[in-house]
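Blackboard transcription, Thursday session:
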Amino acid sequence: MNEDHATGQLFDTACFVGIGHIGSSLARALRKHGLAGRILCLEASDGARRVAMDLGVVDGAFADPAQAVAGADLVVLAVPVGAMEAVVRAIAPHLKPGAVVTDVGSVKMAVIRDVGPLLPDGVHYIPGHPIAGTEHSGPSSGFAELFEGRWQILTPLPGTDEAMLAKLCALWRRVGSMVELMEPAHHDRVLAITSHLPHLIAYTIVGTASDLADHLQQEVIKFSASGFRDFTRIAASDPIMWRDIFLNNREAVLEVIQRFTEDLTALQRAIRWGEGEVLESKFRETRAIRRAIIDAKQA
Amino acid sequence: MNEDHATGQLFDTACFVGIGHIGSSLARALRKHGLAGRILCLEASDGARRVAMDLGVVDGAFADPAQAVAGADLVVLAVPVGAMEAVVRAIAPHLKPGAVVTDVGSVKMAVIRDVGPLLPDGVHYIPGHPIAGTEHSGPSSGFAELFEGRWQILTPLPGTDEAMLAKLCALWRRVGSMVELMEPAHHDRVLAITSHLPHLIAYTIVGTASDLADHLQQEVIKFSASGFRDFTRIAASDPIMWRDIFLNNREAVLEVIQRFTEDLTALQRAIRWGEGEVLESKFRETRAIRRAIIDAKQA
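(Written on the board underneath:)
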């Protein structure tokens, strides 16, 4: 890391394209750590613009792309993956030469495919994904500490300007994150396992319960502390964001669903045939993973 | 509830058969609230007996059934479901006439089938299941507050002595629980959905990850905050306890696995064919369940 980046302001003007949970959290974190002189946002929702201004998350909130991004030397794309292409099409003509554009999309291959070709020469695009977030949505749900102790993955493309990459790494470190560089395709495969499959499974199991007859559904809610509630938290995540993730990381997600289904079928079979030793040995293995996560301070 | 049960000691001598996470938590809670004059345990493990004595969880810890239960007017069976029959066979000849025997098994039909016929006349058997617990095991992991604000399900059999049932209800209320009476078969069906399926799914997904190549497994641990870690907590639960639950609630569990698999297949198909509206509407439904759990104060 360049030592010049260890203190002081990193960017004159940061513009968040989308000021939801992640965008508003990063905006707050930039403010808290004094990393940008001015913080703006481009946001289609009147309500979200008003909340972001009222809470002092941004210094200016715009619905017009030119007004929002023209002066920005850092642009953070923080909209659902499926909306990236349209917002970049709108801002591209107004971007300042030399600006850094990054994104926080949970899928990297599809975003790079959609965004990369639209950006003008002289703008530095460095794709990223913060491994942080809660099940809440909207600008009021954000908080400056969201990224502390969490990983920020950056997937720089061949030919990326080293100085700009160092500056963006510095920004993430100074909001408390650890930075990891990764190939985009590898990112999508890892996240399919650690994030996309768990969310799909959680949505499924909560959906299975919501299809039950009313009286049974009431009991599921009442007795949810027995395991079910752990799934409902992540199944409360933003529907649009998650729809877009599944549509845009299809191959990797379908592959891990297949693995998961095979494994579930094996356990189902062990239950049917009363194979206690198969169940027990499988259940012992999984404890080791939990311990490793606790040791890695990610629990 | 009988008003006599609202304060003061309820039982002279309570004996816990098995002093693990749940047994030791309830023993601590009885002590804290002054509900039993003396607290004993019958426990096969030398180590667990020593820990329970050293921590002052019990006043006496025995490996011999007669010594442990002969004087007890409350006996709490707190061993894995598959071990219930053997421990009851050992204690039955030594039980005091008029004693209340209850259990904390997560499955009720199979425990009633195994335990009921072995108990002598004059002993009151009232099956139960506290909807509480953590992923930790053993006597040192227990704590007196475990049951506060949680549900205690009792599944009394036809002909149960009303006075004894009232006394046991009072015990659970005084350790902080809400008490629900239920038919055993209905209990097993509800818990298959709220608890057994979620645990099986968590074990499966964590198992799927633990089968990955080493370098990928390290990355799954590193980036687990993106969803995966929520599953690892419940997949760290006691392997023997869970083996026994699946073997002893087979029909209900197999039925809910079937429903779950159908629902997962429908989402998988929507991902494959790019049906965004199917995904989005499913993901919206599940948010309502989360809100209901928060409203029910079980989140």
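Lecturer's comment: Chain B has a mean pLDDT of 94.
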